[in-house]
Amino acid sequence: MAATEPTTLVLAGTGKTGRRVVAGLVARDVPVRVGSRRAEPPFDWQDDTTWEPALRGMDAAYVAFYPDAAFRGAARTVGAFADLAVACGVRRLVLLADRGAAEAERCEQAVRDSGAEWTVVRAGFITQNFSEAFLVELVRAGVVALPAGDVAEPFTDAEDIADVVIAALTGNGHAGRIHDVTGPRLLTFADAVGEIARATRRDMRYLPVTPERFVSSLTGRGVPAEYAAQLAGLMVEVFDGRRADVTDTVERVLGRPPRDFTEYARETAATGVWDAGG
Ligand SMILES: NC(=O)c1ccc[n+]([C@@H]2O[C@H](COP(=O)([O-])OP(=O)(O)OC[C@H]3O[C@@H](n4cnc5c(N)ncnc54)[C@H](OP(=O)(O)O)[C@@H]3O)[C@@H](O)[C@H]2O)c1
């Protein structure tokens, strides 16, 4: 690779959206640096001395904050990172944010204030939370207990998010835009778990629980109390119906329909990830 070739840093580059962004950029021959605590150079949100080495020589960056842009205090860290990125010569920043969450909107503002060419990609509940995050254990156990009542959510596939992010990182016309990405239809959590049950031919159910019960079930499985409380708080904040709508963003940006939950459930069931002993 020529030293002057523009390069893209993909944070959370081993995570649900980031690893798909990395794969898509590599397939397009875009030079990529994976942002991860295990990469070389390593990138750690909790150690800001790792930020500059990761940013050096980069032209663009995908900013997916860990643990979550909607968690308390995220905006301060994301803002400091965005400012440093611009100081290091990064021209383009694409931020992943949560639809309808106050702290995530503060993250958006911090990136907009950085002076970079910015694009915000907002997403609903990521479908792959059921197979590539903590929910996978609940699905395997057959009872998915969440403080989400009977709210309708436009479950959003990580493949769609990644493709919109790639368009914003590599294409023109995305600067200064908020891409509000959703799946093609609304489902309740009971609907979603029912789809997974059908696809796996297993008995499984969604159980609406209080935030307190959700927190104690997480901490009982070893999840740190602070993380559990923030996650429950986020669910209470956004699962009140404010996200119960679908957008045409995927169709508009990518010229194809968003991936449907039924297709996700069928393809994921075939991998065996939800098998009881999996
Ligand atoms: N989950 C949802 O439903 C949802 C919905 C809308 C928006 N979002 C946004 O999505 C973003 C997360 O993206 P994602 O779901 O694609 O990621 P993810 O699957 O949660 O993956 C996070 C990645 O971050 C890395 N990581 C963990 N701790 C880190 C640290 N201290 N410093 C640097 N990297 C660290 C891990 O990689 P290593 O272990 O390799 O370091 C991991 O692969 C959040 O900011 C959230 O606001 C999520």
Layout of helices and strands:
Elements: E1 8-10, H1 18-27, E2 32-34, H2 51-55, E3 60-63, H3 74-87, E4 92-98, H4 102-112, E5 117-123, H5 129-132, H6 135-141, E6 143-146, E7 152-153, H7 158-170, E8 177-181, E9 187-188, H8 189-200, E10 205-208, H9 211-220, H10 225-238, H11 249-254, H12 261-271
Parallel strand pairs: 1-2, 1-3, 3-4, 4-5, 5-8, 6-10
Antiparallel strand pairs: 7-9
Q: Can you tell me about this structure?
A:
The mean pLDDT is 96. The chain has twelve helices and ten strands. By secondary structure, the protein is α/β, with parallel strands linked by helices. 47% of the residues are buried. Helix 1 crosses helix 7. The structure holds NADP nicotinamide-adenine-dinucleotide phosphate. The site of NADP nicotinamide-adenine-dinucleotide phosphate (NAP) has 26 residues, from strand 4. Residues 12, 14-18, 36-38, 43-46, 64-66, 68-70, 96, 98, 104, 123, 125-126, 129 line the site of NADP nicotinamide-adenine-dinucleotide phosphate.
Radius of gyration: 19 Å
Mean pLDDT comes to: 96
Distance separating the two termini: 41 Å
Count of helix runs: 12
Number of strands: 10
Estimate the strand proportion: 5-15%
Molecules bound to protein: NADP nicotinamide-adenine-dinucleotide phosphate
The chain-level structural class is alpha/beta
Uncertain runs are none
Helix content: 40-55%
Q: H/E element string?
A: EHEHEHEHEHHEEHEEHEHHHH
Lateral arrangement of strands in the main beta sheet: 2-1-3-4-5-8
Morphology = globular
Biggest sheet details: 6 strands, parallel
